[in-house]
Amino acid sequence: MASFASFVEISRYNLIPLSVTSLCGCPCRLLSNKTLIPTRRTPKLKLNFVFHGSKSVFREVDQGTVLPTTKDSFSELQHKSSQLRKRIVFGLGIGISVGGAVLAGGWVFTVALAAAVFLGAREYFELVRSRGITAGMTPPPRYVSRVCSVICAFMPILTLYFGNIDISVTSAAFVVATALLMQRGNPRFAQLSSTMFGLFYCGYLPCFWVKLRCGLAAPALNTRIGAGWPFLLGGQAHWTVGLVATLISFSSIIAADTYAFLGGKAIGKTPLTNISPKKTWEGAIVGLGGCIATSVVLSKIFSWPASLVSAIAFGFLNFFGSVFGDLTESMIKRDAGVKDSGSLIPGHGGILDRVDSYIFTGALAYSFVKILLPLYGV
């Protein structure tokens, strides 16, 4: 009795049965000159064929891993496109809202900042309680985290009305530390350190934006835009050093993030740090150039600061603060084992993901204008 074996050719899209031939002789009897793959009876090999439309798509399942098909790639492309649209729409909305709050100043700017601080503080303390940071330690009690979030939100408001809140911050830190030390169980130093850093990071540092925007009320006398500003909206006196410095600082940070992202995508090769592997030195250099250029151009438009060297230094300082804040938040998220600090803003993640570049920059910008610039740069 003759033995038989089937031969199958696997092409890119189709599975083509060729022939059934006798093995009494050799396979050279086949008339086809195409490469033939003999199938063998073995329990270890399992091929699953999935057909879509007029073409046959070959999918191999190996230990639960499914190779992506054309349909999967199309769905992924649609998802990325949808995320990009959300990112652009919500980014524009946030930019317009923040710009309006900065122009308004006073309690409008302060309340908007306090709301962002409260949401950011909640995200921070949730990260502290997550699996990465809390590995090997007992997280702070939830009621302490909530109280600290409220304290952080009140700090910008107290700064607006009292100017100096050092005593208030110290008192709040003392009360929180006492609550942690008096809790049931065994208090941990990690609880105290993470909570104190949260008060400093989420509450105290953002207050410098209130000091910069609302505290530096010296008029920017040479501002061309201020000369044509409507009298009902404050007239030329509305354009203070604090307003102009805040607008330039915010715009420079946005430029730094944008140019760093585009530069990293285009020519980025050398990783900047292990904390955030996607950031590159090439992207950072491009971001620095974009940040300084934005600072110089806006200084010419607003006629502040008067010195070109001061404008370049201000741009460099904004870039340094934005990168430092970004890397700090990346370190926190890395320890927490999460990609985003939250999901409040579609396409952007959480509040901390959007404001991380601004947290340290406010203190640097305020100190630069207040201490280093003669006559506040006018």
Automatic annotation (TrEMBL):
Subcellular location: Membrane
Name recorded for this polypeptide: Phosphatidate cytidylyltransferase
Reaction(s) catalysed (UniProt annotation): a 1,2-diacyl-sn-glycero-3-phosphate + CTP + H(+) = a CDP-1,2-diacyl-sn-glycerol + diphosphate
GO cellular-component term (any): membrane
Annotated GO MF terms: phosphatidate cytidylyltransferase activity
GO biological process, one term: CDP-diacylglycerol biosynthetic process
Keyword presence, Signal: no
Enzyme nomenclature, EC number: 2.7.7.41
Enzyme class: transferase
Domain of life: Eukaryota
Keywords: Lipid biosynthesis, Lipid metabolism, Membrane, Nucleotidyltransferase, Phospholipid biosynthesis, Phospholipid metabolism, Transferase, Transmembrane, Transmembrane helix
Family in the record: Belongs to the CDS family.
Record pathway: Phospholipid metabolism; CDP-diacylglycerol biosynthesis; CDP-diacylglycerol from sn-glycerol 3-phosphate: step 3/3; Lipid metabolism
Sequence intervals crossing the membrane: 88-121, 161-182, 194-212, 239-262, 283-302, 308-327
Keyword Transmembrane: yes
Bilayer topology term: Multi-pass membrane protein
